[in-house]
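2024-03-11 09:14:02 DEBUG pipeline.ingest accepted 1 chain
2024-03-11 09:14:02 DEBUG pipeline.ingest length=364
2024-03-11 09:14:03 DEBUG pipeline.predict start
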Amino acid sequence: MRDSILSNPGFQRFAGAFALTRPIARRRAADLFDLCAGFVYSQVLLACVQLRLFDQLAAGPLCASELSSRLSLPQETTVLLLDAAVSLKLLQRRSDGRYGLGSRGAALMGNPGVIAMIEHHAMLYGDLQDPVALLRGDAGAGQLAGYWPYAGNSQPARLSHGAIAPYTALMAASQPMIAQQVLSAYSFRRHRCLLDIGGGDGAFIAAVAAQAPKLRCLLFDLPAVADQASGRFRDAGLSPRAVAIGGSFLTDRLPDGADIVSLVRVLHDHGDARVMTLLRAIHRALPGRGMLLIAEPLAGIRGCEPIGDAYFAVYLRAMGSGRPRRFERLRDMLTEAGFVDIALRPAAMPMLASVITARKNYVN
């Protein structure tokens, strides 16, 4: 009945004209238009990032003519871009016809990882030219699948440095804001040794090591990735207590000796069978009462549904591997693998990452 009423043109005209329902009707109409125009908004944002517009304004407001010269754009299209960015709160009009950073533009300047993802999205947009073909599986491997070299690779441990470098760099750029979310939800100071599986170039371990100066750290990732992590640990002076080990969690034994294992944005990249293989391997490697920490965006998180259920679901589909899972699904998988005391911990920004902890039974 509700659907029939809301879709009725006569009711829509009434709601738009009646004083008590007019604000609701306008808000819903604007929300619907935002869905229709979302691609244009994202392309305005991409143009700002590619032109380094926010960098130009970091030192202070500038007028359109000055920005036209710096951006190598005609003044007419410069003004078009500036006004579009103002409408999206990326920029803000200032005195004397100048433009400065808006609230969203200023926030982006403090999050280089988000800027890296915005540039990276050009591949996703290409893969989504025919979304129905993507959903039906008719599109074949797209740009994103090629960028993520592990998808469909039966021997990922043999990947070269060149093959893994772009994806590893992208993950490293966004790792600081993810690490901040994890460290706000869980303290590693109570532990003696951390094993970070799929830890990339070591950015997460570097952040944890700064918080827990007595913690020993092990990183386990593909050999070419682990080599990059070793370089980071060496340059940061962490080599005495941080070691990177090369291997594949699908075929190789996990390193022993850690009383906590972390999986940061790892599980949602893989299907259920691989996830269960990994969880069981972690359970075997941990001592009694050892901890597992999982950090990744989840589906079904209240207030963040579009992030997990729309964005990451489609992104991972285009990537060719994995899917976002609800906490309840991960809890069932962890229980099946033998873990207990499974908890979803409060996180400051669950749209970036939720944090789940689980413990190995002492008797196991």
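2024-03-11 09:14:41 DEBUG pipeline.report DSSP finds 16 helices and ten strands in the chain.
2024-03-11 09:14:41 DEBUG pipeline.predict end
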